[in-house]
Known about the structure:
Belongs to the IMPACT family. InterPro entries: Impact (IPR023582), Impact_N (IPR001498), Impact_N_sf (IPR036956), Ribosomal_Su5_D2-typ_SF (IPR020568), RWD_dom (IPR006575), UBQ-conjugating_enzyme/RWD (IPR016135), UPF0029_Impact_CS (IPR020569). The chain has helices spanning 52-59, 83-96, 160-175, 183-198, 248-261, 263-266, 296-306, 328-343, and strands at residues 19-21, 43-45, 101-103, 113-117, 129-134, 145-152, 226-227, 231-233, 236-244, 270-278, 284-289, 312-319, 349-352, 355-358. It is an alpha+beta fold. The strands form 4 sheets. Strands 7, 8, 9, 10, 11 and 12 form a 6-stranded antiparallel β-sheet that branches. Strands 3-4-5-6 form a 4-stranded antiparallel β-sheet. β8 (231-233) and β9 (236-244) form a beta hairpin. The longest helix is centred in the middle third of the chain and has 16 residues, at 160-175.
Amino acid sequence: MSRCRVLSIDASARADMTPVPLIQLTRGPHPNFNHLSFSQLTTYTNATPHHPAHLQHILSPQSSPRLPTNPHQRPKSQQTMNEALQDEISALNSIYGDSTLLPSPTDPPTSSIYILTLPPLDPTSPPSSSLLIQFPPSYPDVPPSTLSTHSSNPALPKGTAARDLSLFRDAITQVHTPGQVCLFDAIESFNDLLTLATSPVPSPSPSPSPPPQSQPETPLPPPPWILSAPFTELKSTFVARTVPVTSVSQAKGYLAHLLATDKKVRSATHNITAWRIRGENGTSYQDCDDDGETAAGGRLLHLMQVMDLWDVMVVVTRWYGGQKLGPRRFALINMAARDGFVRAGLVTEEKEGGRKKGR
Length: 359
């Protein structure tokens, strides 16, 4: 590495008080020059050989601060995002599509501004809007900020993007809990709000009309699924859905409805199912389905037996991330199911030893 050595100082320039060369550059080590910038070693005003104290100040290593070379010593704004946000990004992109939540290409990497593409209600339709989301350094203790609309589908009516922006801000306010990531719940809440906002209001008829001879079959309402938080490990994501059921036919109908109406669930790697139902005259029904995840359904049913849950079914959906998890996958499946039972109010959580425990 090239170093610098002081060879001569021109004192003749003291009279006109102009900047003069302080040093000449050459190769060779010098103990005082390890931390000097190039500008400090090239010019200096009114310097003479008769000012050794001032020259020593110029050559002092403390006069040129060094940037930390250890990445752990970098400012907080330059550190990588926290693990909770990394897991949330991976989970959202696994569930809704690879481009659901991406860093903004027009902002610096340290800005924590992302583009969230809102998934459409109809999986076969193109996305309607995308929003700019900024994550504060203290996220998830503090909710993310929805800055503005990033883009909108020009084929949709005017005002659609503004409506989506307002509804998503309302969804963030409704679901955020300090210390817990919230974008997955916010998207689901946004879809509920959007359904209400776009549902047509029936107009009152002036007079009742006679009923037709044959009424068309009314489509069944969607099952009241309660979703767990997404659990992500090695890019595999697990989400549980729970719903009350009173018969085997109802449980099978709910599962068929879910697979028929939700493209993301239908295209998932596995949909592990279990239910327990109390019938009439003391009969009971228990069943499970691995859906290709060997032994997962039986373990899920065993969890329900241990928790003494009846008249409920659970569907745990897994999107495979490309890396095998081994036996760890069974723990993640049960963790998602337990969280779904807690959110559905079927079990309660008690703090034990500083940690929450489901009962």
